[in-house]
Amino acid sequence: MILAAGLVLAVTAAACSSPTTADGGSSAAELPAVSDGPATRTIPPDAGGVAGPDEPIDPTAEPSPTWDADARAAALEHATATMTAFARPAAQTPAEQWWAGLAPLLTVSGQQAYAAVDPAEVPPQAVTGQAVLVDDTSAWLARVQVPTDVGDYTLLLVRADPDDPAADLSAGLWATETITPPVALSQPAGR
Amino acid sequence: MRAGGLVALVLVPMVLLGGCVTGAVVIGQAAAQEQAAASRCAGTSPGVVVDVAGVPTGAVAGYSGQQLVNAAQIMNAGAAMGLSVRDQTIGVMTAMGESTLRVLDHGDVVGPDSRGLFQQRDNGAWGTYADRMDPYRSATSFFRVLAGVDGRDDMAPTRVANRVQRNADPDHYTRWWQPAVAVVDALTAAGTLNPAAARPGSSVTPADLPAAPAGAGSAGGMSGAAGIGGGHGGASTSRAGCDNAAGSVVPVGQGGWTLPADGPFTSPYGMRLHPIRGIWRLHGGIDLAPDCGAPVRAAASGVVARSGPTGDSFGTLIVLDHGQGVSTYYAHMFTRDLLVAVGQQVTAGQQIGRVGTAGGSTGCHLHFEVRTGGDRTDPAPFLAARGVDLPPLT
User: Fold this and answer.
1) CA B193 – CA B274 distance, rounded (Å)
2) How are strands ordered across the β-sheet holding A132-135?
């Protein structure tokens, strides 16, 4: 029994002292050690004190976006296109086809976010009216409400990035970041 | 033999506590709580087995009685599979967002065939009707899929849940994360069980005692307690992969602007010999190079116009729109260290990320740009005109 206790102590000590025990290793192993702990440089800086080369080499910056009639029309059109693709009836649309229609309309992070969605879980089946721009506070962003058969969805659109090789500019000026359901649809089933 | 087993069972917790409490005393209560939160966020705390029969009598975050028993069943199903406290909390969060922690014998509009705590559908993926209506077995089905989600510790909890549930709104579960944390902490505090069956360190009972050190790179857990207690630049306990909450705010001067990161100031704006390409190029911003993981702060109040990977040498980029055609750019953070989402309002001095070395970069630093009307401008005089002086160039 003393032996058993000693063994436990050893195991415990290991668990308490090593930051790399248990299941924390997966992500930490892949990325340099950027952490909440006392920070360490994983790669030494350049000798000259220059920490690193930086920005896209093209010094001509993209123009700052501004609102105009074209941008507004494009935002409404893009939101409607996104919602139409999102709400395609799953019964008639194979999942791959549904995603092929939706993905090009999304931002890169939007694609990461919506990639796991099962179209059979999507409540709306159709766009039922005109899209409305509900927030144009920032010229970079547009919040657009789109009516559907199950209520008004709110889409957050971001200006498509002409510098981003991953962006599909054929989709227009805008890309969709989030597709948020009406409040009534975001309650637990128990409520 | 039987008696020996009993004594051993009593001794084990004492040994565990003895091994860890010393450290907890050294690092202090607040630091221990911060560390516990950080290790939860990082997914480094091994799961705990809680006492299903000993749930709190009152309400926790609005959940009580059978709801807490169901949460305990979910936690125990996760622990039995060797999952972390973070994973357990994601399970509780998901059931809150699906069923309010009740074993529902009905579905919803989209899924009339959905049943149980997790509203699992009758499509063969989630077992029989009895499986889906059983708290422990339905949770086991949930966790079986969750365990296969690669990189989940770097994803927001709601996104992990969405990978399993495949629901239409990937952000649906966000608002149940804090309630789930409260319930998991309360159930853990109410009593843990079966220490020998769980992983080493998993049976430490007090909720405020971290069962495992914070993320990789922290100062060696308990043995490095002094380092933890010393703090390190007010590192936030939230992280993009945890709850996507932005971090602390530092005071800002009257001009409404502040430094986006601490120094040293390692590279100015202007033409320079490119360190990798060996050609003269415009360096379109400034470099500030505090340690890896140091806070990146909003230089002024604004709205997040971009936050994510770029596919170019920025690696990742946060863009803040400050209005009047003024925007600021923050590059090279790792995706997991982006603490703000597109559309979010931020205040001057609020932490928006952590310094990293993603993209075209040879060491941890923040590349910071100011653009007015779309044109890059030298941030040094721009900031100076607003009462913010850079540290001397090193």
Assistant:
1) 59
2) A132-135, A141-148, A151-159, A174-180
User: Cis before residue B264, ω within 30 degrees of 0?
Assistant: yes
- Record the tokens describing residue A48, joined without a space: 């000259």
User: By the 8 A CB rule, do B319 and B300 touch?
Assistant: no
Structure tokens at A183: 């409040």
Give the pairing of strands B366-372 and B286-288: antiparallel
Binning chain A into helix, strand and coil, the percentages to the nearest 5 are: 40, 15, 45
Show the 3-state SS of B49-83.
CECHHHCCCCCECCECCHHHHHHHHHHHHHHHCCC
Residue with tokens 């059979």: A120
Closest CA to A122 of A95, A147, A162, A155: A95
Nearest to B125 by CA among B139, B141, B104: B141
Give me the numbers of helices (H) and strands (E) for chain A, helices first please.
5, 4
Q: What is the distance between the alpha carbons of residues A172 and B216, in angstroms, rounded to a whole number?
A: 42
Does this model's pTM top 0.80? My answer is no
- Count CB-CB contacts under 10 A for residue A62: 13
Distance from CA of B190 to the nearest CA of A (A): 22
Minimum distance, in Å, between the CA of residue B254 and any CA atom of chain A = 24
> Is the CB of residue A97 less than 8 Å away from at least one CB of chain B?
no
CA distance B320 to B340: 10
Chosen from B282, B292, B333 to mutate, greatest number of chain A CBs within 10 A: B292
Q: What is the pLDDT of residues A12-54, one digit of tens each?
A: 333 333 333 333 333 333 333 333 333 333 333 332 333 444 4
Distance CA(B356)–CA(B361), nearest Å, equals: 9
| ipTM score over 0.90, yes or no | no
Handedness of CA A82, A84, A85, A89 (dihedral sign): positive
What residue spans of chain B are helical by DSSP H?
2-27, 29-42, 66-80, 85-99, 129-132, 135-146, 157-165, 177-190, 225-229, 379-384
Angle between helices B66-80 and B135-146 (to 10 degrees): 40
CA distance B251 to B234: 13
